[in-house]
Sequence to fold (79 residues):
Amino acid sequence: MTAELPHEIIAERLAAYLGPNTAQVAVRTFAERACGRPPPELTREDLPRLLEALRPMLRTLLGGDGAEDVLRQLSEDLR
Fold:
């Protein structure tokens, strides 16, 4: 799968840690909660807010360093 839209990139990267279905649900849930819009409607300006919203969940699942590594990589991938 080759992701092109930002929410697809995020879900694809998170799938390695959460599985594909859970990654998509996480992106949808946090996009709606943090940004107030569904994933396909996210703008570039929404992405930092979305990544910040994902941080606590990732810290719980991957630990502090693992979460920061994933978030850093996502930030680079979304540039």
Q: What stands out?
A: Helices lie at 6-18, 20-35, 47-77. The radius of gyration is 11 Å. Residues 17 and 62 are 8 Å apart (CA to CA).
